[in-house]
Structure formats: structure tokens, C-alpha cells
Amino acid sequence: MKNQHMKKTVVFLLLISLFTACKKSGDVPGDVIVNEDPATYKEIASLNLGGLGSAEITTFDPLTKRLFAVNNGTANKIDVIDIANPAAISLIYSINLSAYGGYVNSVDVNNGKLAAAIESATKQNPGKIVVFNTSTYAEEKVITVGALPDMVVFSPDGKYILSANEGEPDATYTNDPEGTVSIISVENNYSVTTLNFASFASQLTSLKAKGFRVFGPGNDIAKDVEPEYISVSSDSKTAWVTLQENNGIAVIDIATKTITKILPLGFKDYNLAANAIDPSDKEGGINFNPWKVFGTYMPDAISSINYNGIPYLFTANEGDAREYTGFSEIKRVKDIALDLTAFPNAAILKQDIQLGRLNITTTMGDTDSDGDFDALYSFGARSFSVWNGSTGDLVFDSKNELDVKAKDLGVYDDNRSDDKGAEPETIILGKVGTKTIAFVGMERADAVAVYDVTNPTAPVFIKIFATGDAPEGMLFIPASKSPIQQSLLVVSSENDGVIKIYKADKL
Q: Is the separation of the CB atoms in 325 and 385 below 8 Å?
């Protein structure tokens, strides 16, 4: 018994020693809980990388304690920022990307590897994922992927890199490449498989009936689908990809490298009091009321979590229209014909102080094909939503709370009321103490909303705070990987080129 007791004591002391060593090195085990108050996030540092287009997306490498930030301001590059002391951050290097093609659109890090998504100089041509060493910045691999890689992410286990290749057309809409998703096997010398959506052509009628949009010239689903953003499950088996313009989410089996289904997202009824919007920038105020209009979710960013065995998807429902010289779907309500049976007060509704200024799509709403509109569909849903990742069912929507909270803070931009309101663009999840927290970035309100989503079916609003101009990207650094063993929120804003770091108070 005495020997057993001594062995237990030795093991206990070894564990304490290991934890202390980890803590000193900044490598705190992920299951260590740092009690923090998510209602107290406040700015502790900022860094201007050069103005418009200079700070869009960031990623963090815990091995080097460096941020890597996309910068397409004056030259295409990735700026490297030392955040060993998050309260005193500094630019220490820039990785020049001019030799690789056009703009760099996204970055992600895993185990000392930095992956960058770079479009071709002619963005309808195949793009590249370029992998760099995070310590030396040396190029490790160049992988060809589909046209316009807009988002890149490592799977949590580091075995795969996934790229959402948006495949946008040229201005005349005569060169429209396929929208694709590339899956890169890191362990197999970065071999790549690029998937398209051609196999879903036979399902198009049923998908459209549920709110999926295929509407560009040619009506070709392989070319019309435009992958935007990716979230990978914690077990690295499944990926969900937003198809923003199409109003859907694709589900991918990573091991078999197949797109298993498309989840159409349907529409949001703004005629319900809880969904009330302000559709005009000319009525002399910010006034939320029900209107006979539908919102089209069209999410940009997506994050995911498993809760009680069910995958839940969190989407920022920004909305995005196609507007090219060769094809445009946008018109204001005052510039279209309204069906007088559906809208008997059409003349009043078309006034600027009513619905006249609201941007809608002309690709839906003329249900009887007689040239006038029987229903109105606007862009985005002015909200964030939670979806069942297996069935695609909507389990929560923030209704009009983001717009209302932005107004209460004094940051709601009424000049955007006729378009997409506060315009939620990005959403990320993180563990803050024992709670799961969602951060929602709003591009036009220049703000972030914070929600407790510990129960993902019933998010609870915590706070909203102002950020830089047009927050494009957000990054959550958990306490277990943070240089200071406290969680950090990094917000990068594309209009002013400023990166801001926020920290919560310990409890």
C-alpha cells in the first residue's frame, strides 16, 4: 500500500510539473479552463497595415506567436505580426506574393504551415494554394486548385487543406468557370482532388423549389454554383461550404472526397413583426417595420459545432448579388412593375420613403411569368442563423436583433437600409471559460455582436461593440493557444486596414 501511495504521489507531482512547464511555454493544455467574462471584451491593441484593402483575413500560429494577415493594399502580400505581447503588437515581416498571381484571399495555419489562397492574375483561370513555413517563410508547396480560391482552411487534424473556389465570371459573363471545392492531402505530398457540382443537375428542380438559386446565363449548375466559405467538423470528417449567391450549403465527406448533398436555405419573411426591417435610406430615420418582402439568407461565413451528437451550423447571412456588365439581377422596387393583386397599394409602396429604394433580385418573384412581380426577394437576411448540419433545418435565427442592437449602440448605418442593413458578414465560435461564444461581425455597422451559444438552439445576446471600418475577418485565439493564456479576439477591417485585438477580463 505504501509503494502504491508513493507511486500516485510521484505521478501527481509529475503532472503538476508538466502543467507548469506547459504554462511557462504558452502551451496550456486545451482542457484547462480559464474563467473569463465574455461581456467584458475590450480593445487592447491595434495596428494599421496601410488603409483600404490592407487587412482582410488573419490567422494565428501558436508556435511562433505570429499573426499572418492578408494585405492587398499596395502590393499582394501577407503581413507577419508579432503578438507575443498582444498589448504591443508589431509588423515584423511581409511575404511578397506578386510572383504567384493575383490577390491573396485567405490564409490558415496548422502545425507550422501557412496556407494561402491566391487567385490567378486572370481570376477565371485556376488559382493556387501556396504553403509556407511559419518560422522561415520559405515556400514549401504550390498546389493548383479551381478558379478564384476565396477561402482556405486546414482540417483540425491537419491532414487536409480545403479550398472554396468561387469561380466568378468575367465582367461580360462570357467566361464563367466552374465553382469548385479542392481537397488537398497534406500527408500525400499535397495531392489535390477538385470537386464540381455537375452531378446535382438532376436535382435542380427540387433544389430550386426549396430556395436554392441557379440563375446565371446558361443555367448551368456546375458554373453557377459559387463556393464561398468552409467549416470543418471537429473530427475532420465533414466539411460544410456556403454557396452564397445560390442560397445553400454543400456537405462534403472529406475521406471519400465527395459532395454528398446540398442544403437549400429557403427565405425569411420580413412581414413578421420579429423580423421587421428598415428598407429605406430616405425616410429620415431608422424605422423597423414589417414589410411584404422576403430575405434570401445567402450566407458568407460559416462556423460549426457538435452538440449532443448533432452538428449545428452558424451562418452570417450577408447576402450578395450578381452585378456585371453582361448580367445584373439587381433593381430597386420603384423600377419594377408590381402585381396589383399581390400589392394593391403598389403606387404608395414604390415611393422612396416606403419600399421604393429597396434592392431586390429580378430572378425571382414573377411567379406567373406575366412581367410583374407577385413577391419581392431582397439580398441577405440581416441576421445570423443556426442550422441542423445534417438536415438543413433552421433551428434559430436572430431575426432583427443585430439591426436593433446596432441602432441602440449608435452604429447602424441608415445609408445601407435599402440594401442589407447592418450586413453580418463573418461569424466565429470560441470557448470562453465554460461557455461557447459566437462573435458576429457586421460589415456596415462596423461592429461585433457577442452571443452565448452554449446551447446552440437558443443563443442569448451578451453585448455589441464597435470595431474598425468594415470588419471583414475575425479570428478567435483560445486561452490554450494564446501567448498570455487568455482568449483573444482579432478583428481585421478592410476599409481602414486596421487590425484590432480584444481581451476579456478574468473572473
A: no
CB contact at 8 A, 264 and 247: yes
Helices (H), ranges, 309-378: 346-349
135-168 pLDDT, tens digit per residue, is: 999 999 999 999 999 999 999 999 999 999 999 9
The closest alpha carbon to 439, from 430, 450, 455, belongs to: 450
User: In the predicted model, what is the mean pLDDT of residues 67-94?
Assistant: 97
Q: SS3 for 240-303, per residue?
A: EEEECCCCEEEEEECCCCEEEEEEECCEEECCCHHHCECCCCCCCCCCCECCCCEEECCCCCEE
Q: Residue 378: its pLDDT value, please?
A: 98
**How much is the pLDDT for 52?**
94
Contact 247, 357 (CB under 8 A): no
Grid coordinates in use for 503? 481581451
Longest C-alpha distance within the chain, in Å? 92
* Contacts (Cβ under 8 Å, ≥6 apart) of 219: none
Contact (CB, 8 A) for 483 and 84: yes
The neighbouring-strand residues paired with 78 are: 70, 95
Integer Cα distance of 117 and 136 in angstroms: 19
Contacts of 234 (CB under 8 A, 6+ apart): 156, 305, 306
What Å distances lie between residue 183 and 159, 160, 196, 227, 347, CA to CA? Answer: 10, 7, 11, 13, 52
Task: Retrieve residue 457's grid coordinates.
Answer: 438552439
Which cell goes with 49?
Answer: 497595415
**What is d(CA 210, CA 380) in angstroms, rounded to the nearest whole number?**
16
Q: What are phi and psi of 123, to 5 degrees?
A: -70, -5
- In this predicted structure, the answer to whether residue 24 has a pLDDT above a threshold of 50 is no
d(CA 491, CA 301): 14
Report the sign of the C-alpha dihedral through residues 436, 437, 438, 439, in that order. Answer: negative
Residue 408 to residue 296: CA distance in whole angstroms: 25
Q: Compute the residue count for the chain.
A: 507
